Amino acid sequence: MSKLFDDRRKQLFTLKKMRENLNGKGDVPETTYTCPICNKEHEKSKLSLNLYVCEACGHHFPISARTRINQLVDRKTFREHTGKLNSSDPISFPGYLNKLGENQGKTGNTDAIVTGVGNIEGNKVEIIVLDPTFMMGSMGSVVGEEFTRAVEHAMKHKLPVLCISASGGARMQEGMFSLMQMAKTSAAVEKFSQMGGFYLSLLTHPTMGGVSASFAMLGDIILAEPGALIGFAGPRVIEQTIHQKLPKGFQRAEFQEEHGFVDSVVTRKSLKKTIGMLLLMHTNTKG
Amino acid sequence: MMSKKLTAYQKVMLARDTKRPKTEDFIQALFDDFIELKGDRLGKEDSGILGGIGWFHGRAVTVIGHRKGRTMEENVKYNFGMPEPEGYRKALRLMEQAEKFGRPVITFIDTPGAYPGLEAEEHGQSIAIATSIARMSSLRVPVIAIITGEGNSGGALAIAVANSVIMYENAVYSILSPEGFASILYKDASQSANACEAMKMTAKDLYDFGIIDKIIKEPAGGMQEDWAGAFKDLDKVLTKELRKYDSLSDIALAEHRYQKFRRIDENYLLDERKMGDR
To answer: Which chain B positions have a beta carbon within 8 Å of A232's beta carbon?
Structure first.
């Protein structure tokens, strides 16, 4: 057991070193962005002012967890919980530690999740954000554990929970440990819900697989950003299974709204206000 | 013995062998007077999941499992054991019914995964699985899951959130089918034999990780060589496991299950605060 501990400690410090060497910047580094829908070129500074939404066609660019928090949370109110947990590479998957190190350097985060407490439109809320820039926001043991700790923190302090998903699904490199996170996180939401807690889930591009089939779809209220891909199986897998082309707009946020799985598709510009109002409506029921 | 030398890939082949007993065979052998209960009460019956009530040594229990066929005709009917959302909604209905009447829930896991189809997505595969996992975690009755063949992805976990998770020695349990895993990580589905090793999906791997609780041994060639022996062993294990939970209150049973999954990876997380610099 002590050898195991030593090995893991070694792994941890290899990761830490990589993170320090790479010196993270957080957001995507390019200075100009091309809209993948209408091909319009955007300068980063302008796009950032427009919340990373294409002004020409309304396409919502994926954004990092930090950017998301800056957009939504009232200034100087965010207190972060995350940053100390690291994956131990539990199934010793070749190349995984290096991949983690690279992503840690790129994003400045230890994994694909940021959690903390902050105010939105003056309403105090537990905030959980998955980071699509870190290994596609995939859920391994760190994401599952941090999510669960945040929900437990909210239970203890009687706070509502806002979770913003952006994830390709379970993290393959952690094998069954990733599958178990679906049980751990869903069980935490179930407990929180049975205690009367309000859980607001926002689905952003993409919310797929093991994340969509666990905590992301368990919201009391589920919102989605326009155009977000939301589903269990990926479109490519479905096409290969059924041997036919999928209809346009399949699995997009609007499709999910039409089929009854999303309460409302909300543009990024209206998000802060809508979320703030929903939080307020769940604190004030006495009149 | 011989089965110890098998590679993970060989185990996958054994686990998928059509000669291996299926959920229906286990039910017939272990539970008396089984009555099948069908339908999700929302518009459909999905026979990819089989559920009902039967006697286990004089005690009424709810039994739910993935249903694979043996012939092509059966497999088409049961969709090769790949449930659609309606199947998971039926499973959840039967689990909540079991809770209402205080019956233990026993589940049999044997699926390539939840069905990745167009209608399955339109009908909410994600939320059906998510809800089943969440609700199963808080059931106030004993829940025992047995992985008999292959248990792949959320489609397996949806009915495997149990107080005791038991695996047959040559069964496999994994995040995704080895073919799907290879196609995602190696961009090549034909690499699935390599994926089987890398994924750590055998009963022994998962027992060592603390992800499953018990392994039922199989003879050389797998339990397909000795159905009667396989049934007898499971009968013993089930009796023992159910007795273990007799003394727990309904709330304690739910809490036991919660804590089991809450702590399932606690020895595999690195906390910078606890480890100190060197």
So the answer is: 114, 116, 120-121, 125-126, 129, 154
> What residue spans define the domains of chain B?
8-259
* Interface touch B120/A261, C-beta < 8 Å: no
Dihedral angle over CA of A91, A93, A97, A102, nearest 10 = -130
Give chain A positions within 8 Å (CB) of B157: 179, 182-183
Burial of B97: CB neighbours in 10 Å, binned 0-12, 13-18, 19+: middle
Residue A30's pLDDT is 65
Cβ distance of A190 and B137 shorter than 8 Å: yes
- Give the model's confidence band at B38: pLDDT under 50 very low, under 70 low, under 90 confident, else very high: very high
- Tell me if A89 is assigned to some domain: yes
Task: Pick one of 1.20.1250.20, 3.90.226.10, 3.40.50.12780, 1.20.140.10 as the CATH number of B8-259.
Answer: 3.90.226.10
**Cα dihedral B217, B220, B224, B230 sign:** negative
Owning domain of residue A70: 63-281
Domain CATH number, residue A131: 3.90.226.10
What would the pLDDT profile of B175-194 be if each residue is shown by its tens digit?
999 999 998 888 888 899 99
